[in-house]
Amino acid sequence: MRFNGKTVLITGGGSGIGAATARKFADHGAQVAIADIDMGAAEAVAATMSGKASAVQVDVTDPASVNAMVQHVVDRFGRLDCAFNNAGIGGAHKTIFELDHDEWRRTIDVNLSSVFHCLKAEAEAMRDRGGAIVNTASVSGIIATPRGTEYCAAKHGVVGLTKSAALDLISHGIRVNAVCPGATDTRLLARAMGNTVLADHLKSMIPIGRIAHPDEIANLVLFLASDEASYVVGQCIAVDGGAIVQ
Ligand code: NAD
């Protein structure tokens, strides 16, 4: 029960990696706020957690909506100890010739600017007591993938933002780190695997010979958010079956 008495906020908690992480935090004693643009999905995950969870609707691209989400957590649970900034969308899987400006803006808004909006609101809520924040980047935040223009740019941005925010916030007792998942069995990946160029590339990149279960990403998130990681600051850690060993 590593998180007994702790309050945890998870964006994108209605599906995939976020939902798996929400369940694990609850299993370890946390009170969990499950935030998602899809309120039905967030409520469905919360309903499996016997009263220890609260669902909240958020559009992470909208700073006012993000501020309201954090306020909801503070009102409901009294404080915020840990946050997992995880909501995101897949890329368009197009070449730079094919990708249009709206597709570029949308992915940067949902996958990168959102993390800034969340970090800012969460840091305010944690300012007096400290806390732990984990962002979801990607192996695409460390290496490039073909047809990955806007997704790679956004995830490289999350890596830079994580490192910089970590240096700013550690003096307030707030640790910031990121997980960089490889291919993980979620709706997002199922949509991406529809593209055979990307699917073949992904399969050929994974030495462990399979894609990840969302629980395998959640395990690293819980470690980074826990007191066991008390000296881990500003790290962006790949969890990818050996795909990008450096
Ligand atoms: P998923 O589609 O299962 O879950 C993403 C969740 O984010 C959904 O519930 C969705 O409703 C929510 N969301 C999307 N836009 C939102 C918005 N504007 N506001 C609030 N919520 C929003 O996908 P997943 O694979 O679990 O993705 C989680 C994170 O992991 C993403 O940041 C993704 O980029 C990253 N990631 C996934 C993989 C993978 O292979 N699945 C690999 C690397 C990184």
UniProtKB/TrEMBL annotation:
Stated family: Belongs to the short-chain dehydrogenases/reductases (SDR) family.
Organism in which the protein naturally occurs: Sphingomonas bisphenolicum
Top-rank taxon? Bacteria
Protein name from the UniProt record: Oxidoreductase
* PANTHER family named in the record: DEHYDROGENASES, SHORT CHAIN (PTHR24321), ESTRADIOL 17-BETA-DEHYDROGENASE 8-RELATED (PTHR24321:SF8)
Task: Fetch the Pfam families from UniProt.
Answer: adh_short_C2
Keywords attached to this entry:
Oxidoreductase
